[in-house]
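RETRY 2/3 - previous attempt timed out on the joint model. Re-submitting the same 286-residue input unchanged.
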Amino acid sequence: MNWTKPVILSPRDFDINISSPGNVIFHDGYYYLSVQTYPRPNGEKYGNEKSRVFTMKSKDLMNWEEPVMLMVKGDIPVEDMGRMIDPYILEDDGTFYCFYKQNGVSFSTSKDLVNWEFRGNTACGENVCVLNENDEFYIIHSPKNGIGLLKTKDLKEFTDCGVTYLGQKEWPWAKDRITDGFVYDLTGTGYGHRYCMFFHGDDFDSHFFDASLAVVFFNQLDELWPDIRK
Amino acid sequence: MFSNRYSVVFPLSERFAYRDPAAYIKDGTVYLFFSLVENAPTGSSSIWPRARAPIS
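RETRY 2/3 succeeded.
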């Protein structure tokens, strides 16, 4: 794959620090990209208690409007929502599900991307990506190292399907952590595989954050998570 | 030995780390969104670029 030079889309602003794009969905004529704010006004390594989840919308995937906060806890004051990051939005049969990192992974639902109702949470790694196939949710998440998978039919009972480390043993650029898996269903796109998964690998030797972006292709979820058959 | 097809999209550089990928494919083009973290003397700053690639 030959990539264009990256284009910076958000301001370099420590007080807001838009980051961790979750995914894009198309709804009512707009593309919506879920993102987090991750304020580090004093040079902190991690975002402070004001970190929240947002969407930005676009007509063309190129020009994006200002971020709008997702009130995923319903009609409560912003300061009472708690720190939350890593949003991912899934549409299923007219209902939007927003998954985000708070007390493991939390999830809320909406019919319009504006009014949200908190639904629950479960123990989980961070930075989730969620597929909905065969009436089952597959939650791809990141524990301390590796990329894990949970499956659930009802967001109440969850089955742990293990963790994949891909080729970490052979990849010096990812020797310290494989993380943040983003699985995309390639059906109908012209690729020769069913899925790809973007992720980043950490090599902590020299910098504050040391990460490379990579992509792996596969055809069945059980190639990476054999325990999914259980 | 890991046998799946894979590629490194953006390798770590002296100046930047690349994190938190998300992708969307439309009309044969992959839109890749990610956090770009600058290794600055005061720490790092996250900014958010977009790169595109044709399907190949």
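The longest strand of chain B covers residues 29-40. Closing ticket.
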